[in-house]
Design brief:
about 475 residues, alpha/beta, FAD/NAD(P)-binding domain, Arc Repressor Mutant, subunit A, 3 domains, 7-stranded mixed beta sheet, 5-stranded parallel beta sheet, binds flavin-adenine dinucleotide
Length: about 475
């Protein structure tokens, strides 16, 4: 196995990872950044491949900000290793990777994880039909390849990304026939309250996205969620219903809308698989129903010399990710004795002040769009919950009926969560079903354990080494 050594190893070339790399390199650290994408920038600053002609203004300002961040990380001490997946770790301070030039073991004094997030999947009848996208997936196609879904598009879910993607699709010329938001704007603003003013710029961005949908006369249904997606071989319609405070559909309010594409977006889930693999302690957040790592003021996890920043820890957006990355990058340099601890703190004062200001805004957004009980009750007995392994709700309830008492038992009895996505799509649904059946809170059920490979890699590629 070939080995490469650096002072700092960063996983993820999004705003968090690139800022961490730039800060550590400025202090004199040799940094390797690994990302499975072919271009740096992460989710928000996703760059189109070389040679792809710029399309309509898909992400105008984001693209410029992304380029500035990438320039900042273009430092002689930063080695960017793209198209490379970090898939495992078998001893402290090392990470196994697989890229175009084969498998490697990367060794570093400090590890900074900035692995970002993915869409929260919700199992409902019809969600596996061709023509159903996650909003993040639809956006990735639009930003990365300038691909617009063909035919009529209906978006359903809640939260900032739903609004952003609906507006971007309209701006790119998609035929958006409606949006269903589980939270009405009035309720969202009431719940968010004055804390929203701490993120005034982001609030104005949200208002401009909403205004673009009003101008385009896109029908807006709220508070409403999709309860079923209809179609024989592909999407033909979506049925939505009004919901009460717990997001439980109100009988008699169902309405079916003909459409060719449904984009679902109920918020994001941090990619914590590497944290779990490395044994970092996680704690349960009641508002979001998600596990996040326990971190110090410098964003070091419970495992010494392993730092974690950005959306891979808690969903708080690109600006927060970049500030956290800077602080962790400086702390890493201090740990390596390239900076004094005082110098690391004084260089990060502005970032810490900004984080303090944005913390209230982040908490307000979490309260506004926190998923409710009713969302995880949409699957019927025959609905596939784990799509990698074709496991239905009835299979999971069958295992629980047969005496499965833990998430791990449900996993090993049904294979839910054992497929290529390693539970990224089904985990929260399986946890909810298990918790309900066992009469426990999700916190007591815990996240699935992570095992290498945490991301799909071909065994042949590893064997070739
Ligand atoms: C699908 C999606 C769409 C979004 N769209 C918007 C938007 O339009 N506007 C907005 O304001 N915010 C958006 N966000 C949120 C925004 O992207 C994030 O807040 C921001 O990018 C966080 O930065 P980050 O560095 O924490 O993570 P990211 O930018 O997500 O970067 C994480 C990087 O880690 C890499 N990675 C993860 N695991 C591995 C691994 N095992 N091996 C190698 N590489 C790995 C990923 O490829 C990715 O490039 C979106 C988020 C998602 C998930």
């Amino acid at each position: 196995m070939r080995e490469e050594t650096s002072d700092v190893l960063v996983i993820g070339a999004g705003p968090g990872g690139l800022s961490a790399a730039a800060a550590a390199a400025d202090a004199g650290a040799r940094v390797t950044v690994v990302d499975e994408n072919t271009a740096p920038g992460g989710q928000i600053y996703r760059q189109p491949p070389d040679g792809l002609v710029e399309g309509r203004a898909v992400a105008g300002r984001d693209r410029e900000r992304g380029r500035a961040l990438i320039r900042q990380a273009s430092h002689p001490l930063v080695k960017l290793t793209l198209d490379t997946t970090a898939w495992g770790s078998f001893e402290p301070g090392t990470v196994e990777t697989l890229g175009p030039d084969g498998a490697k073991r990367l060794r570093a004094g400090v590890l900074i994880l900035s692995t970002g997030a993915y869409d929260r999947s919700v199992a409902l009848p019809g969600w596996t039909l061709p023509g159903v996208f996650s909003v993040g997936g639809a956006q990735a196609l639009l930003k990365g390849q300038h691909i617009i879904p063909e035919g009529r598009v209906f978006l359903a879910g809640t939260g900032p990304l739903l609004l952003v993607v609906a507006s971007q699709l309209v701006g790119a010329g998609a035929d958006v026939v409606g949006v269903a938001d589980a939270v009405s704007t009035g309720r969202a603003l009431r719940v968010g309250g004055w804390d929203l003013l701490h993120g005034r710029g982001l609030l104005l961005d949200g208002a401009s996205y909403r205004a673009s949908l009003i101008r385009a006369r896109v029908p807006w249904h709220a508070p409403a969620i999709p309860i079923a997606i209809g179609g024989r071989d592909r999407v033909e319609s979506v049925t939505i219903a009004r919901v009460d405070e717990s997001w439980t559909p109100v009988p008699g309010t169902e309405r079916t809308v003909p459409t060719d594409v449904v984009c679902l977006g109920f918020g994001l889930v941090p990619s914590t698989e590497f944290l779990r693999l490395l044994g970092c302690q996680l704690s349960y957040q009641t508002t979001t129903g998600l596990f996040e790592p326990v971190r110090s003021e410098d964003f070091e996890t419970s495992v010494r010399n392993v730092f974690a920043v950005g959306d891979g820890t808690r969903i708080a957006g690109a600006i927060v990710a970049a500030h956290e990355g800077r602080i962790a990058g400086l702390a890493a340099a201090a740990r390596l004795n390239l900076l004094s601890p005082d110098e690391a703190v004084s260089r990060s004062v502005a970032a810490r002040q900004e984080l303090e200001r944005l913390a209230k805004f982040t908490a307000a957004i979490e309260r506004m769009y926190a998923p409710r009980e009713g969302l995880m009750s949409l699957a019927e007995a025959t609905t596939v919950v784990c799509r990698c392994e074709d496991v239905t709700r009835a299979d999971i309830e069958g295992a629980l009926g047969d005496g499965a008492m833990t998430l791990q038992q449900v996993k090993s009895w049904t294979r839910a969560g054992m497929g290529p996505c390693q539970g990224r799509m089904c985990e929260l649904n399986v946890v909810a079903l298990t918790a309900r059946r066992l009469g426990l809170v999700a916190e007591a059920i815990g996240p699935l354990s992570a095992r290498p490979p945490v991301k799909p890699v071909a065994l042949g590629d590893l064997a070739a080494e």
